[in-house]
Amino acid sequence: MFGQGLLKGLSITWHFCFGKAVTEQYPERRPHLPPASHGSLVVDREKCSACGICANACPNHVLTVESERDEQKKRHLTGYRAKMGQCLFCGLCVESCPQEALHWDANFELACYRHEDTEQDLLAGPAVEVKKGA
């Protein structure tokens, strides 16, 4: 009677102790993410018409679209900023873009030390890492 619970608990522990490892060794091995995973946002400057639909679709007002009009009253994109610290990664901005100029990138490493660094200029391209001692 009393030994059945103990044996059942030990069998579960034994199974997990010598079973397949599920922990990913992240810095050494990169995880294989599914294609639908949301990482960082990327905007295609040539496709974007600066309509602002993506900024209006965002529930947290993460995106800021800046544009200028030329002589023909056509909008041209001058700035595109995202506050990734406030982003829910819901994908409403990507889904609402009529020109499909906004899409997700597989880069999920968005961690930073200061809150001010979470704001990204998406027209500037990916951030370049500075290596010390080189």
Quick structural gist:
Helix content is 19%, strand content 20%.
Structure write-up:
This protein is α+β, with helices and mostly antiparallel strands and 134 residues long. The protein has a domain at 39-124: Alpha-Beta Plaits (2-Layer Sandwich). 19% of the residues lie in helices and 20% in strands. The protein has 3 helices and 5 strands, in the order H-E-H-E-E-H-E-E. The strands form 2 sheets. A 3-stranded antiparallel β-sheet has the order 2-3-5.
Query: Fraction of residues in helices?
Result: 10-25%
Please state the average pLDDT score.
Answer: 85
Low-confidence stretches: 128-134
What best-fitting shape do the alpha-carbon axes yield?
A: elongated
- Briefly note the CATH topology name of the domain at 39-124: Alpha-Beta Plaits
Round the Cα radius of gyration to an integer and report it: 23 Å
N- to C-terminal distance: 68 Å
Structural class: alpha+beta
CATH architecture assignment of the domain at 39-124: 2-Layer Sandwich
Give the class-level CATH name of the domain at 39-124: Alpha Beta
- Total beta-strand segments: 5
Number of helical elements: 3
Classify the beta-strand content into a percent band.
15-25%
Element pattern in H and E: HEHEEHEE
**How would a crystallographer describe the biggest sheet?**
3 strands, antiparallel
